[in-house]
Amino acid sequence: MESVSIQATAKTPSIDFNPDQGMLEIRGRSNPEDSRVFYKPLIAWCEEYAHNPQEKTVVDVHLEHFDTSSSKGLLDIIKRLKTIKELHKDVEVIWHYDSDDEDILEAGENFEHITGITFQMKPH
């Protein structure tokens, strides 16, 4: 399985998904013109990865902003990783947020509740 590396733009986050290390990193801002087009291949990658995951998968999310349509794409990615947890493998989601940004914190808490995956909330 190939790694995915996408450079950030003004409207899309950087993506670094490394299957050999079990690391998925999303960083930046996410308000693409069409979030379905942006997130669809990433969701498919997560589905494929879930068939043969590492013993531990770490999802490191550093988003300073994301729009409502991006929220669906992010949630779909995390939902795909829930299947890894169901295989009795470790899934760790590290959710970074600015300490004064309650919206990003609340979004992480909602994703945690919806997916049943425990998030590490990391203020900075």
Largest sheet properties: 6 strands, mixed
Helix content: 25-40%
Q: What is the number of E strands?
A: 6
Distance between the termini: 33 Å
Output the CATH class name.
Alpha Beta
Rg: 13 Å
CATH architecture: 2-Layer Sandwich
Count of domain modules: 1
User: Residue ranges: pLDDT <50 for 5 or more in a row?
Assistant: none
SS summary, helix count = 3
Main sheet strand line-up = 1-2-3-4-5-6
Q: β content, as a range? A: 25-35%
Topology-level CATH name? Transcription Regulator spoIIAA
Description:
There is one protein chain. This protein has one domain: 2-Layer Sandwich (Transcription Regulator spoIIAA). With 124 residues, the chain is of the alpha/beta class. Helix 1 (35-49) runs parallel beside helix 2 (68-86). The chain is built from 3 helices and 6 strands, in the order E-E-E-H-E-H-E-H-E. Strands 1-2-3-4-5-6 form a 6-stranded mixed sheet, with helices on one face. The longest helix has 19 residues, at 68-86.
Helix and strand topology:
Blueprint lengths: L3 E3 L7 E5 L4 E8 L4 H15 L6 E11 L1 H19 L3 E8 L4 H14 L3 E5 L1
Parallel strand pairs: 3-4, 4-5, 5-6
Antiparallel strand pairs: 1-2, 2-3
Give descriptors for this structure:
3 helices, 6 strands, alpha/beta, Transcription Regulator spoIIAA, globular, 124 residues, 6-stranded mixed β-sheet, 39% helix
